[in-house]
Amino acid sequence: MVREPLAPVRLRVALFAAYLWSVRLNASIIVIRILHRVEVRSSSIEGLGLFALDAIPAGERIRQIVVEREITTAFPLREDHGERADHCGYPDGKVVLLGYPDRHVNHSCDPNAYVHYEADSCYLVTRRAIAVGEEVTCDYSINLTGGSTWPCHCKTARCRGMVVGDFFALPAEIQREYRPLLAGWFVRRHLDRISQLPELSA
User: Fold this and answer.
1) For residue 80, is it within any domain?
2) pTM exceeds 0.90 for this model
3) Quick check: is 1 in a domain?
4) Cβ atoms of 57 and 37 closer than 8 Å
5) Per-residue pLDDT tens for 43-90?
6) What CATH number corresponds to the domain at position 102?
């Protein structure tokens, strides 16, 4: 058998690797284009909010949430850099600083979206269809216990009057409604209490 020169083989491998990289790059561009469907602008709920740029069906990922870094005792919030406690999330016992534009998602007592956790990432996902120009909102009480309380300005028909940073302080029927939206880590941490929630009736 005649063996091919090594150089052409290396060239073909290099070309194939370049092709795979281009496929990955093109796929990444498509994903970014699909997920980035929002913009930040003034909100009637509070300060700035996140708004849909196009119609988004129910049950669809809006975007991957940007997490800038974990907040720890050694690396606390830097207020002189504009970092604020109300720009933080609290996944699985950690405190993380949310990046732009996700830090501007406002609370609603009748939210059209929620945070879905998947491995080391998290995503904004629609609970119901969101119209063009509609503000994207979440209920801050989901996946949280022991948080603070402040007046709510969501103005929805279901407004509870106060934002309570504790899932178990919600009315029982709302806890049952939100049960499918809870993160796996939250369920594991509070399994005894969550297992006592009756299932939603059909």
Assistant:
1) yes
2) no
3) no
4) no
5) 999 999 999 998 999 999 999 988 867 667 777 767 766 656 666 566
6) 2.170.270.10
